Every structure is written in structure tokens, then in C-alpha cells.
Amino acid sequence: MTAFTRPLAVLPPADASPASDEDWDAPTLLTLPNPRKLTTSIRATAQVFQDPRSAALLERVRMVAPSDANVLIIGETGTGKELIARHVHDLSRRSSRPFVAVNCGAFSESLVESELFGHEKGAFTGAFSAKSGWFEAANGGTLFLDEIGDLPLSIQVKLLRVLQEREVVRLGSRKSVPIDVRVVAATNVRLQDAVAAGNFREDLFYRLHVVHLALPTLRERPGDILPLARHFIEEYRQRLGYGSVRLDASAEQKLSEHTWPGNIRELENVIHHALLICPHGVLGAEHLHLSSLNIQRRPAESEVSAHATPQQALETVLRELFNEPHEQMFELIEDTVMRTAFEFCHRNQVQAARLLGISRNILRSRLIKSREISALK
Is the dihedral of CA 170, 176, 182, 186 positive or negative? Predict the structure, then answer.
């Protein structure tokens, strides 16, 4: 369990006059507490919001953070989900209270219940003393459940009850403990698919999915690549005791053209290695060692230009879809439109139907058919 009460840093790059390049507008920067202790982690240790797409995400975070609503963050590994969770906490009324971050996949099924809800002395072999769980540790603050999709179904049932009743019962106890915790969950998989496969409870999904934050990949927000690179150059040159280091044009081009399947964490590792072999304070393309996996990966033709209008983007995606044979193409497109509208309207059927200009009954029928909602609801 990792617990922090320290507020998330929101600040410009380390120096007012960065040692990496000529003058540039400093973007908003988020960093983890003590990032130098996380060098072996796959988590992103920094996040910037220079690109229009990430700037829109930051604005959405600012809108939803002050509420006590549960939040579900979806994004690939290394996109900065914990950084966003910490920023939600930092902007909430709970900012002076604990922020507890845990990885749901890091514990076995036999231990996760004890870790999550706590246990009493003698509850099981080896329980020599009572211990509070994550919920009690985060009481009054925020509990960040990373990789929520890894929780066993038996624990999902108990987690749902805790969220509904706002109390926990320690393993081996019959006494409930009241808790006041805001849950921010994160996953790198599509939980709707896990629900359809029977691996995740539908009722728990709805309980967590009050606010939805989708983190774009680094390749989907190219405007953040160079600001992040400059931040990591500054961070690691200070650790290494180097003087001024800057990116040359060839390095900037190579960084901008790469697709970054490992996202921010991959970029950090590439910059760290480049500084180790960069001899004269100028970091060039020859110092950027990208893995063969990354080199073989090419931008998909369906990746739409950042300057395309929404209508142009939709047309591009449809053309790609038409290249893939499908027996019921129109039904597939309709289902996708309705499900997307439903999610956009925070799963409010009336608002989604009004947005699409169709009746609620038509929308409801299609959502049931696609297993987005239960016929009993």
C-alpha cells in the first residue's frame, strides 16, 4: 500500500529559464511525489497539458474534481492515470486528507480482502494483530484503485456493498466501521467488455462510472511530446550533475514521429538513456535509441490529423471501417453511435436520446441488444 498526503505538484518546469532549448511557453506540469524513488516503476512520473487534447482533459478534471462523485479513469499503461487521480484529489475539498494509491492486481485473492477492508487479530493464520485496510487508511480522503478490473468477483461484491453502505467490516469482525472515502478507479482495459464477458460486475461498473475520464495516448497528443522530453532532460541532467543540455532539430523530429507504444514512461526511459551517452550537451537523433518494436510500429492510417474537423475525422474513420468486411455494417455503426452517445451523456438515456434526436425507447432497445444495459433496468 502506498499512501501520500502531500498535495500533487502543479508547477512550471524546474528552472524559469530551461537549460534545454530556446524560450518556449511552459505548460502545466504534474509530477508524482518523490519521482526519483520510482525509477523502476512503469508508471508515468510526469504529465503536461500543452496539446489541445490534453488541455481539454485538464479542463474536464477541473470541472469534476470538486464533487465527491466516484471517478473511473481509462488509459493505456504509462499514460499518467495516477497523476490524474492525484490531481482530482488535489482539486477537491479532500486535498488536505489522505490520498491512498493501491494496485488491485498486486495481491492474491486470499490477501486482497484483508488489504482492502482490514482484519481483526486471529482472523486467519498469521493475523497476530488487528490491521486497518485501505478504506480506513483513506478515510476522509481519496482511495485510488489502480487496475480495478483485476479484482476477483468475490471482492467486487464486497466492494459494491462498501460503496453503497459507506461502511466496512474487517475480516473476522461483525462490527461495521463508518467510512467517508471518494473512490477513483483506473483501468487499462475496456470494462464494458469485461462486464459482457462476466468478469466484472455490471452494478459495480455503474457505481464507479459516475465520472469518466479517458486519457489519450501520447501518440494522440503530439503537442505534449517535446515539452515532456524537455522536462525529463532537465530532471535527469540534474540527477547526473550535467550542465546545459538541449535537443537538436533531428532529435525533435525523431521524438515527434515516434508512436510511443509505452507512452510517457517510455519517453522518460529514452531520454534518460540518451543523456547517458550524449557527450557535448547537444542531444541528437543518434542518441535516441528506440526499441525495434517501436521502429516497426507505424502510425495507423486511421489516426486522424489534429487539424481535421470532427466531420472529417468521422469520414476518415468510416473509410477505414469500410475496408474491413462486416455482414451488418450499418447496424455496427448505429450501435457504436448509440453507445458513444450514451457514455457521453454519462449513461443518461433521456439525454442521449435527445442528443441523437431519437426516442428513448429506440435507444433503450439498442442498448439492451448490445448488452450495455440490463433489460431489467
Answer: positive
Secondary structure (DSSP) of 213-244: EEPPPGGG-GGGHHHHHHHHHHHHHHHHT---
Q: What is the pTM of this model?
A: 0.70
Sign of CA dihedral 160, 163, 168, 170: positive
Of 207, 60, 229, nearest in space to 145 by CA: 207
Whether the CB-CB separation of 177 and 168 falls below 8 Å is answered with yes
Average pLDDT of adjacent 10-residue blocks, the chain of 377 residues: 36 38 59 61 81 92 93 92 95 95 83 86 78 92 94 91 92 89 93 87 92 92 95 91 92 93 92 90 90 45 50 75 70 86 83 87 85 72
Q: Are strands 246-247 and 282-283 parallel, antiparallel or unpaired?
A: parallel
Separation of alpha carbons 153 and 199, rounded Å: 7
162 φ, ψ to 5°? -60, -40
Query: How far is residue 244's CA from residue 273's CA, in Å, rounded to a whole number?
Result: 16
**CB neighbourhood size of 250 (10 A):** 14
CB atoms under 10 Å from CB of 230, counted, come to: 24
The amino acid occupying position 21 is D
Cα angle 43, 150, 88 (rounded to 5 degrees) comes to 50
